[in-house]
Amino acid sequence: MTPVEAKADLARWHAAPTDYLLDPDGTLGHLYDARATPHMVVIDRTGRLVYMGAIDNTPSTRLADVKTAHNYVAAALDALAAGQPVAVTSTRAYGCSIKYKDE
What is the reported pTM? Predict the structure, then answer.
């Protein structure tokens, strides 16, 4: 996917990320040992990794399940904003397996 294609997808999905990353060679994916998508990473303002793993504790796409799930990423961001330590720093990511082009 090119940057132009990614930007078009985000617009079509009405997504509003503050930023996004394309990693066609898998450099960062390998660095963080990402094996499933989504593989979420939260890095604080100093560049320290404070959370890595699943987006939440409910491996389901059902809207009712998602609404009641504990969102690890939101909790990590809330803790950082409050100047508190992140309580859960690592979980196992779930989802589709990542296929790297060099494997």
Answer: 0.81
